[in-house]
Request: fold
Amino acid sequence: MQSCTTPEFFHENGYASPYPVLDEQEVVRVLAAFAELETRSHGRIKPLWNIKIHLLVPWIWNLVHDRRIIEPVKAVLGEDLLCWGVGFFAKSPNDRQFVSMHQDAYYWNLTEPKGLTAWLALTPSVPENGCLEVIPGSHRSLLPHTNSPTPSNMLPAGEHVAADGEVGSAAPLVLNPGEMSLHHCQIIHGSKPAAGEDRRIGLTIRYIDGSVAQTGEQRGSATLISGRDHGTFDLESAPRGLLNPADIRAYTDLSRRFFKVAF
Reply:
């Protein structure tokens, strides 16, 4: 039986899963830290923070650099590795929120589609609570998209593949707490509303090959994870503390630049 966590499987199918990352005690600690972040943000992490939140929170910065995550990523993308974005996707029980079927590369605006998302489950991620679904093999080309923003769509622009009914059947990526999946920036993916009674919480980490750049005149920023800097992005710095005021001020400029290059 072919392993579903090899670079060969990823390149053929556009995804690989599951990879063990955090043990049970680590998951408990991360969930407690996540709850603290929500408390500091009046029950919900501010959407603006949820773009590159590793630049504001030291324990997330450490996760982004965790070898258990980056080694499988490097096996796919190579030694020169950047992190371009980090954020949480959380659905409450019986939540109507969903993620429309789309390709990340549509709005990442990279010079080459050499990127992926590591999706780290902090709670069970199953079909009943709206786990990530992908269409295997759909990463080979970028398809036309349309934007239909709605309050229940977790994507801000409501982007979705225009021909999502004609591209194949979706496969659910079931994960236990502490496991992660990887999916190519061009694979068609999304998630349905949560129908179960358990909250679904996942951390998404966007990694890109160190040699790619953002298209257009605006220069993007990224975090150097491993290997060498190719000079294609302005490099980001580690946070000085949890929600440090100076970091938040610097982050405001980075987030403005992000929206200029990524949408």
